[in-house]
Design a protein that fits this description.
Strand content: 25-35%
Helix content: under 10%
Number of helices: 6
CATH topology of the largest domain: YerB-like fold
CATH class of the largest domain: Alpha Beta
Radius of gyration: 20 Å
Largest sheet: 16 strands, mixed
CATH superfamily of the largest domain: YerB-like
Shape: globular
Structural class: mainly beta
Number of domains: 3
Number of strands: 26
């Protein structure tokens, strides 16, 4: 289920940024355009701008008016939906076992992290501007989630539960624990007859958002976005081939929709909600190291604090970059070889936590199948 903003903008999520008007100065917003005309991440509440609109009186006379609008922090898309923009981030751990596909809700999330687990991957789908009914299948958390999600301002964390050590790590963190094993939260979860256990646990984002405490606030921006009309940098690509643990992922650039389309293990990866192929405006590949989790030595733990190499795919192009992050409460910083912040296309973003050199960009005009998976 999509928000009104998403229905209006479509999956591409490419909305023009609204010019700064008088209301901006009246509200004292801290937003500003940088020298390269990109919008930088903010650590404060979403910025408010003014958008011109017209209303028609009873006698048919059009009257100009000003409507307050703001920018969703996790997509960079302008909105007038004051209720949605004030919501906290909601993270739902979604299964990616072959028997869990097709999943529900991945195309409605603002940001999706794909992390290696035990010879498979798992998704952490982050919702703030959108919603999904249902969402799932929902599986367990990992210790790596604590560091990976820390920059989202104490997000709601929906998961099926975990072993005693993982449960203790989540409980000791600032993630707002919505475990399905907790009596208070159980009514928000249900089993689906469409899949077999343990790939059958689902919820609804509306049911999960209902658990947000009164002091829950919206997340800060996680990325910098290009302003309207600014051409993206980088080399043109047909897509990329990515080797995650236990799954071969291909993202193909579709110039018609201006989206990257996902395939898994040679098949189009679809969303069960509407059978649409999984898509995104941006694919950010972060090369990270994995160490054995202190909660379970068989489980890999992504090291997301530090620095490393990255590939940023946006608007049909790729930029070779680096990522850095000095604290779990801070977002990833992406910079190109000239030490400039890499700006993304406003819209949805897939973050791939890949092992070193796990991605192979496919140059534009090249058959995807001709480029081997690393």
């Amino acid at each position: 289920m999509k928000s009104d903003t998403q229905k209006r903008l479509g999956r591409g999520g490419l909305a023009a940024f609204i010019s700064i008007g008088l209301l901006l100065s009246a509200c004292g917003s801290s937003s500003s355009k940088t020298a390269d005309s990109s919008v930088a991440p903010q650590s404060s509440a979403p910025d408010t701008t003014a958008a011109d609109s017209t209303t028609t009186t009873g006698d048919g006379i059009a009257v100009a008016s000003t409507v307050a609008s703001a920018v969703f922090p996790l997509t960079g898309i302008a909105t007038t939906d004051t209720q949605a923009i004030a919501r906290p981030a909601l993270v739902v751990k979604i299964d990616n076992h072959p028997l869990a596909r097709p999943q529900s809700g991945l195309n409605e999330a603002d940001i999706v992290f794909e992390e290696n687990v035990e010879q498979l991957t798992r998704f952490a789908a982050v919702f703030q501007s959108g919603s999904s009914d249902p969402v799932g299948p929902i599986r367990s958390g990992r210790t790596q989630d604590v560091a990976m999600l820390g920059s989202l301002n104490r997000p709601l964390f929906a998961w099926s539960g975990g072993n005693a050590r993982v449960t203790a790590a989540i409980a000791a963190s600032d993630l707002r624990d919505l475990s399905a094993l907790t009596q208070k939260h159980k009514p928000a979860y249900f089993r689906s007859n469409a899949k077999s256990a343990p790939h059958d646990l689902y919820s609804k984002t509306a049911s999960l958002f209902a658990f947000a405490p009164a002091d829950a606030g919206p997340p800060p921006a996680q990325f910098t976005y290009r302003a309207d009309g600014v051409v993206s940098a980088g080399d043109a690509v047909a897509g990329l081939n990515l080797s995650m643990d236990g799954v071969k992922v291909a993202w193909v650039w579709d110039a018609a929709t201006k989206l990257f389309l996902r395939s898994s293990d040679g098949k189009a990866h679809r969303d069960a909600s509407d059978n649409a192929q999984l898509s995104t405006n941006n694919v950010v590949v972060l090369y990270v190291s994995y160490k054995p989790s202190p909660a379970d030595f068989k489980s890999p733990e992504a090291q997301t604090i530090g620095k490393g190499n990255a590939l940023v795919f946006s608007d049909g192009k790729v930029v070779k970059a680096t990522w850095s992050r000095t604290d779990r409460l801070q977002p990833f910083v992406l910079k190109d070889s000239a030490d400039n912040v890499v700006a993304l296309t406003p819209g949805r973003t897939f973050v791939e936590l890949g092992r070193a050199d796990s991605a192979a960009p496919v140059p534009a005009g090249t058959d995807m199948k001709s480029v081997r998976f690393p």
